[in-house]
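Entry 14. Structure prediction run on the chain below.
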Amino acid sequence: MLKINLNKNGNELIIEVIDNGIGREESGKQMKMTTGKGLEIMNELYLIYNKYYNEKISSEIIDLYHPNGQSAGTKVSIRIRNHDEMV
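Output returned:
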């Protein structure tokens, strides 16, 4: 399951992407074909966006767990701060 939330808080747009997958820890244990560059590329995109639009983007990745400690998925929060209040 994938859930996407969009919220506005003052001059900030908050995008949340939540999944109920196996989580990053378990995913890291499994053999896969990946470059592992996804987060690095996204951070570079945030810097370029800030340079051209003067709007700061930040992100946070949170591992989700059931009360018994078993992985419950992942939540990514992306925050875009708009200085012109156009969000």
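The mean pLDDT is 86.
Filed with the rest of this week's runs.
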